[in-house]
Amino acid sequence: MAKILIVDDAEFLRVRLNKILDTEGYEVLQAENGSKAVSTYKEARPDVVLMDVTMPEMDGLTALKEIVGFDPKARVIMLTALGQESVVLEAVKSGARDFIVKPFEQDRVMKAIHKLLS
Question: What is the pLDDT of residues 73-88, one digit of tens each?
Answer without folding.
Answer: 999 999 988 667 788 8
